[in-house]
Amino acid sequence: MRSSYSGAYFDHHESMAAVAGFHDVPHVLDTIAQRYVGQHPAHGPVYRVTRESAIRKLPNHLYDMSASSLFSGMRQGQFVYA
Fold this sequence. Notes:
Layout: H1 16-20, H2 25-39, E1 55-57, E2 63-65, H3 67-70
Antiparallel strand pairs: 1-2
């Protein structure tokens, strides 16, 4: 059976609001949230390798790179592209 509303996006039998009741918003939201949790299970922690080096990541996510310590043989006027 189709909804009496002529511009309905979903058929009446496919509508969560129509099946659960138009005024039972918490039930509809809970059903949607549970479906999301079921489709996106929790992941364990992600560990990333870090190391001590002359290139440091700053708190603002920029990198601080001391070219003179990395390339001690550089002469004045030479460039390093990163």
